[in-house]
Amino acid sequence: MAGTVNTYRRVIALTGPLLPLVSFLARLPVAMSQFGSVLLVVQTSGSLATAGIVGGTLSAGQVVFGPVLGRLADRHGQRPVVLGAAAVNAVATAALVAGALGRLDTVPLAAIGAVTGASVPLIGPLARTRSVALAHRAGSDEGVVGAVHSLEGTLDEVSFVLGPAVVGLAALVAHPAVALGGAAGLVAVFGTAYALHPTAAVAGGTPGRGPGDRRRARARVKGNRVGQPRVVHAVRGSLALQSAMFGACQAGIASLTARLGVPGQAGIVYAAMGVVSAAVGLALGALPARFGLRLRWRAATGAALLLSVPLLATDALWPLYAVVTVLGAAYAPHLITAFALTERVVEPARLAEAMAFAASSLVAGQAVALAVSGRLAEWYGPAGAFSVAVGAAALALSLALVTRVPSAGARAEAPVPVRQTAAAADGATGETGETGEAGEAGEPARSAEPGKAPAVDGNGAYAGR
User: Fold this and answer.
1) Within a domain: residue 136?
2) Tell me, what CATH number does 355's domain have?
3) Which of 37, 61, 234, 288 is the 20 to 30 Å CA partner of 225?
4) Residue 456: inside a domain, yes or no?
């Protein structure tokens, strides 16, 4: 226990205490907007079909444009991209509220929903990218990097439990418009604060490369066994299947609680699952390094399959609570492991884009599964929806079993920039991949003083070098 606390202290020493709080509050609107938009449009238009279309375009916007924002962040740095996206998203969310209250037609309302989704500022993926960059810059070991992923995964889980709960509470005591208006305010204030936090300097973007530099980078990645795209695609597929499980569970839980005459219990069941998932995710930071990512991936997907099968026979409220709560223990470990695998196999200069693709996979998988499992729940009852969850878990385990996972010592190389930056004088890697201190081949550039965290001032701000 003491070792775990000490590991997380090292993580906070890298980021400063304010960054996790700011990033959590900035990612909360993402969890509020999807559910909040559906509730708002249902209440103002009285049409479930219209609400589904608006919610679908919002998800589609995020899936399609999320990786674009990630690529822009890799190229130009997180600060300008997040500032622009947060501003657009706040205005678009406010426009969605105004349009719904003004009873706009379906097509213009759906268009606003698409802009709202497309401008989501990707705080979760970018926060992972930034924290990992800080860890590697400080020469942190794999235990600290793993704890970074655990902490970020826990923040995601808590936000996706708390967000819908806040929306539901606001809708109950006031109006869904209040929740979405609050989401617009949160993204404007805390998205901007995240962008302006001094740690943004570590994710300042990669300078443009000429054709010769791109050829050399491709040659290095092609020759590096961790650069194989099939690993990345398998991980994204696994994430999509996990979110499909979650979407199918949502449909099944909603169907069963409605059949039992207690539809209000559905949100509490979701919350119980999310709380357990977040707690297990945080505890994952204590797992010894000898439990590698391949073993963790297979264990998490195997547990998800094993623990989801009882859903097929669940037909009462308290058994539903028990099964779903236990199932939550498999979600965060898989999510954390998948993002850690993404960080391992992708070159650092494209990490934000890769993280954004991973997040988009989650959104896409859940949206498709909700549509399919909702229809199956209408035809065959809750078991029809839960069968989608079990099938997705089986496919995720199959992916984990057949995909070759690189070892911890083999990381994708960063491409050599056209011009040496000031970091080169600080012991950064050059063409040969040598570092200021001896390390594993192919790892990102590290500080010449391993183990030394970047300077943090008394307010938790990153002071740079």
Assistant:
1) yes
2) 1.20.1250.20
3) 288
4) no
CA 59 from centre of chain: 14
Domain count, the chain: 2
Q: pLDDT under 50 in the chain at which residues?
A: 210, 212-214, 216-227, 414-465
Does some domain include residue 462?
no
pLDDT digits (tens, 9 = 90+) for 341-351: 998 888 888 99
Cα torsion 339, 342, 344, 346 to 10°: value is -150
The percent of residues above 90 in pLDDT, for the chain, comes to 48
Domain-embedded: residue 147: yes
Q: Are residues 241 and 284 in the same domain?
A: yes
Range of the domain at 111: 22-203
Together in a domain, 34 and 77? yes
Q: Is the pTM of this model over 0.70?
A: yes
Distance from C-alpha of 362 to C-alpha of 106, rounded to nearest angstrom:
26
Half-sphere exposure of 71 (CA within 13 A, CB side): 7
Q: What b/e readout covers 261-287, taking b as 16+ CB neighbours within 10 angstroms? A: eeeebbbebbbbbbbbbbbbbbbbbbb
